[in-house]
Write a structure and sequence with these properties.
Order of helices and strands: EHHHHHHHHHEHHHHHHHHH
CATH architecture: Up-down Bundle
Structural class: mainly alpha
CATH superfamily: MFS general substrate transporter like domains
GO molecular function: carboxylic acid transmembrane transporter activity
InterPro entries: MFS (IPR011701), MFS_dom (IPR020846), MFS_trans_sf (IPR036259), Sugar_transporter_CS (IPR005829)
CATH class: Mainly Alpha
Shape: globular
CATH topology: Growth Hormone, Chain: A
Number of helices: 18
Radius of gyration: 22 Å
Pfam family, one: MFS_1
Organism: Paraburkholderia panacisoli
Oligomer: single chain
Subcellular location: Membrane
Distance between the termini: 30 Å
């Protein structure tokens, strides 16, 4: 008699988080860390470019936004590819692309050559992040999914924060090209490691009806399995298939409203993040703060984001996601206003920028929220399209800093205006929660709202079977 089929998600939920899963988390952590380092690099080399190439700050706008255009296009294309061909192949290829392109950026001879190389770098970056989030989500047990995914995503904050400290050391000694060269060497080396050690998503393999031997080989690295050669595997609540359009699914199966709310929230959040990471050193320098101190203060933003992301991951596993994220964005708006009201106090700015980064950790959790919201057949697409659409907010934020400074707006005016997108992000996520709690005849779609069980029971609502 053949043994009953093994539910892969139930297997992951019932067993402890194994050393093999920690390895997967660490590898994904390294991917987003080098992603964060490269993404933040341009903010630290911008003052050197202005001096060395004798260009205006406004002329740097194409360079600052080129990678973001690449990020958007890379994310929009990588998700459907990963939902069709698998997460691992897209991750490895994308890391290799942005590593090589970053190394080429170090040899740029003009603004336009640097812009072209940064665009190619963005293509790789945009493809890497959504698929690492998706892969980590699909290897994590439900009870710790948000926390483990946010721990992995802290690599981005750590990489971005480290850029400030690395930049303050290497740029004065070796010039701005050294930072981009380092940003190329690390991911190229990492791509080789990933090719040898990173597994494909076992949930994706199960959904695509891969061989039982391949699935069993991966699961045995997590926990023991019966020795029978006739083992079979399945995913509860997910039918295997190949014909459904992952893009079309974002606007069907009850996903449409959530898709729009996720896009708006992430778009607004990235306006704030990219204006700060791209232009805060220059803004502070213009207000009279020495560049080394400005770099350290900017680094505090990403360190704050790292700690805030960990806390929010813990909270999301226990409480309603929309409440956690909405409150966080609201707190970010208050902190941003406080920065604008205190432009000259460097000691206070360190605290306020750290606090802002802590609250803006909500933006870092958004790919995790999206990964939990969408079904497996469109999950990589859902995460990557949210990232892709949101990147246009990043493009706006990265471009508008130089433009606003050229127009002569003060430090205070820029930061008071920057509070507006943070407030809009808080409202969008709050409305998403209200919609999925109260829409007539429907219940929350997935575990993104699992923390709200007590509220749901009080309202007489029942939870849908999670993905």
């Amino acid at each position: 008699m053949n043994p009953p089929p093994i539910d892969v998600q139930q297997f992951l939920d019932e067993n402890r988080f194994s050393p093999y899963q920690w390895l997967i988390l660490f590898l994904c952590f390294l991917v987003v860390a080098v992603d964060g380092l490269d993404t933040a690099a341009m903010g630290f080399i911008a003052p050197s470019l202005v001096t060395e190439w004798d260009v205006s700050k406004a002329a740097l706008a194409p360079v600052m936004s080129a990678a973001l255009f690449g990020l958007a296009i890379g994310a929009l294309t990588a998700g459907p590819l990963a939902d069709k061909h698998g997460r691992k192949v897209v991750i490895v290829a994308s890391v290799l692309v942005f590593g090589v392109a970053s190394a080429l950026s170090a040899g740029a001879w003009s603004l336009w050559s640097l812009t072209a190389f940064r665009f190619i770098t963005g293509l790789g970056l945009g493809a890497a992040m959504p698929n690492t989030v998706t892969l980590m989500t699909e290897y994590a047990p439900r009870r710790k999914r948000a926390l483990l995914s946010t721990l992995m995503f802290c690599g981005f904050a750590l990489g971005s924060a480290s850029t400030g400290f690395v930049a303050s050391s290497v740029i004065p000694m070796f010039g701005w090209r050294s930072l981009l060269g380092l940003g190329g060497l690390l991911p190229v080396t990492l791509a080789a490691v990933l090719m040898l050690t990173l597994p494909e998503s076992v949930r994706f393999l199960t959904w695509r009806a891969a061989s039982s031997a391949e699935i069993a080989r991966i699961l045995r690295k997590i926990a023991p399995l019966p020795a029978e050669e006739t083992l079979t595997f399945h995913l509860s609540g997910e039918a295997g298939g190949h014909s459904r359009s992952s893009i079309r699914s974002l606007f069907s199966e009850g996903n449409a409203a959530g898709t729009w709310f996720l896009w708006i929230t992430f778009f607004m959040g990235l306006i704030v993040v990219y204006l700060l990471t791209s232009w805060l050193p220059t803004l502070m320098k213009e207000s009279g703060v020495p560049m080394p101190q400005a770099a350290v203060v900017t680094g505090m933003f990403m360190f704050g984001s790292m700690f805030g992301t960990i806390l929010m991951g813990w909270l999301i596993d226990r409480f309603s996601t929309y409440v956690v994220v909405s409150i966080s964005y609201g707190c970010a708006a208050v902190s941003i206003i406080s920065i604008g009201l205190n432009p000259g106090d460097v000691s206070l700015l360190r605290v306020l920028v750290f606090t802002t980064g802590f609250a803006m950790g909500a933006t870092t959790t958004m790919p995790i929220v999206a990964a939990q919201f969408y079904q497996i057949h469109c999950r990589a697409t859902g995460v990557s399209w949210m990232l892709g659409m949101g990147r246009f907010g990043g493009i706006l934020g990265a471009s508008m800093g130089g433009i606003l400074m050229t127009l002569g707006l003060s430090f205070r005016a820029i930061f008071l205006g920057l509070a507006i997108p943070a407030i809009l992000a808080a409202c969008a996520m709050g409305l998403m929660g209200v919609y999925y709690y109260f829409r007539k005849g429907n219940e929350p779609l997935s575990e993104v709202f699992e923390g709200g069980d007590k509220v749901r029971k009080a309202l007489g609502l029942q939870s849908k079977v999670p993905y």
